[in-house]
Amino acid sequence: PWPVRLDDVSVRYPDGTVALRHVSLAVEPGEMVAVVGLSGSGKSTLVRTVNGLVPATSGTVTVGPHDVGSLRGRRLRELRGGIGMIFQAFNLADRASVYQNVLVGRFAHTPTWRTLLGVAGREDREIVLAALDSVGLLEKVWGRAGALSGGQKQRVAIARALSQQPQVMLADEPVASLDPPTAHSVMADLRRINTERGLTVLVNLHLMDLARQYTTRMIGLRDGELVYDGPAATADDAV
Ligand code: ADP
Ligand code: ADP
């Protein structure tokens, strides 16, 4: 798994909004870190600077071997291929099968002749089934994604990210649209995947309780500034 490092990163959007202010942090390979803060504090922006979607206005972002700011073309695809993304809105193709939704992760960042033909090899199939097994949804493989519950849909999205065989998982408010028991079970899945596969995980959360319970380290953002970086369990509500 890749480490993730921000050195004195600031982000100013074209309209002048400053979303991150001189943020420095280092996430070790295999670590699971929660990024916590109110809406508008810069959590999504932080995730988008890590996958190269939003450029740092100043400072440097390093993900594994990649200096994110300097990447173009094939190297940028390599970075994104190494990063599995999970969002609040699950972004599944509801009319397609669970299998097809997870298979998409295999080809998302490395299009090949097989993508164009929609052909999956034996290895692709095995990886898709293993990813679904990781989230406990093997029995739904031939069901339609649109027929699943919210928690199941998010698990399919996690399986889709896993089928990419990523080095890093970035989850932007993955449980914000789920009811509390379902949110807990999806967080538990993420934590289990982090420990079993040794993946580096950054997860944006606005609920500190989930961060305390399922991660060991918490990064607190307020108005784009890093206001806390330490153990999740002892972070107080001021974060
Ligand atoms: P969070 O994920 O914590 O809600 P965001 O990173 O989405 O925070 O937003 C941080 C700040 O940047 C907010 O003030 C938000 O309105 C602003 N912002 C986010 N995206 C854009 C954008 N594309 N253009 C301009 N401002 C933006
Ligand atoms: P989040 O807090 O999860 O980022 P938002 O509702 O703040 O969600 O933002 C939704 C979308 O709108 C994002 O793509 C974000 O970049 C964009 N956005 C947010 N604030 C602004 C803004 N002030 N100007 C332009 N785009 C914005």
From TrEMBL:
Transmembrane segments: none
Molecular functions (GO terms): ABC-type phosphonate transporter activity; ATP binding; ATP hydrolysis activity
Residue intervals of the ABC transporter domain: 4-239
Alphabetical list of Pfam families matching this protein: ABC_tran
Keywords: ATP-binding, Cell membrane, Membrane, Nucleotide-binding, Translocase, Transport
Keyword Cytoplasm tagged: no
One GO location term (cellular component): membrane
Cited InterPro entries: AAA+_ATPase (IPR003593), ABC_transporter-like_ATP-bd (IPR003439), ABC_transporter-like_CS (IPR017871), ABC_transpr_PhnC (IPR012693), MetN_ABC_transporter-like (IPR050086), P-loop_NTPase (IPR027417)
PANTHER family associated with the record: AMINO ACID IMPORT ATP-BINDING PROTEIN, PHOSPHONATES IMPORT ATP-BINDING PROTEIN PHNC
NCBIfam families recorded: ABC_phnC
Name by which UniProt lists this protein: Phosphonate ABC transporter ATP-binding protein
This protein's encoding gene: phnC
